[in-house]
Predict the 3D structure of the following.
Amino acid sequence: MEWAEKIKCIENELGISEDRGRLARLIGVRPGIISDIKTGKSKKPSADIPLLLITTLGVNPEWLENEKQPIFVDLNWLIRQPWGQDLPIAKQKKQLIDINAGYEKAEKTALYKDPPGIPLVYEGAEGLEDGIVIPMLENAASAGYGNGLDDNDTPVRYIQVPHHLSKYPHLAGLPVKGDSMEPTLHDGDLVVCDGDGWDGDGIYVLKTHDTSYVKRVQMTSQGYEVISDNKMYKSITESAESLSIVGKVRAILVIVPGRRGGV
């Protein structure tokens, strides 16, 4: 591997490939030095560049010399440094390890049985270690009277789900708010929703009149029947024109007390 490629690998690993001059600033050299290496103008950097990468960023000397993984000796050490806490990789790692805060309410109802047609995903379950990472959105999908859902909402953290869910497009996690879907969904549950619209009867995140809901939806000759599993709430019928379907709920994320780790 040429040095130009090594520098690009380091930047990609840190999440700073689009931040021009960031790597140079991190190790304390002129941006032109790094730029010359990346463009191939400088085929082999001076000896101080590898030394700075190793001592300042914790780049693995064996990777620099023989391309032996990992690229960084200890990413945890890296993101604990004052200058490393603002790196994109640090932010993502903090989002992943801080996920427990979003599960406080889900823990209270984590032991109920799998609802029909929608699997539960338990933290620490088999297959989660090699799962996929999806965004967790802040706005709740109301299981009551609804609240606004911003289509441009940015993730507040990232969560890991089993790899088999990757067959569904545009996955995102949403917290459930309210009790209208009990006993299927509880206040504080986290649902995994795709963004592919209608896919047969089931539980959906949907919008109507600028309000977001998570409900059971069935297609009838009169339109979509929007059903609350909690019989204290009335079902309604909406036309296809007035109901905007975000996507189908593919799983419910819950934590079983005592089974930490894996997300």
Residues 105-113, 142-149, 256-263 have pLDDT under 50 and may be disordered. The chain has two domains: 3-97, 101-254. Helices lie at 3-14, 22-27, 31-39, 48-57, 61-66, 75-80, 88-97, 104-108.
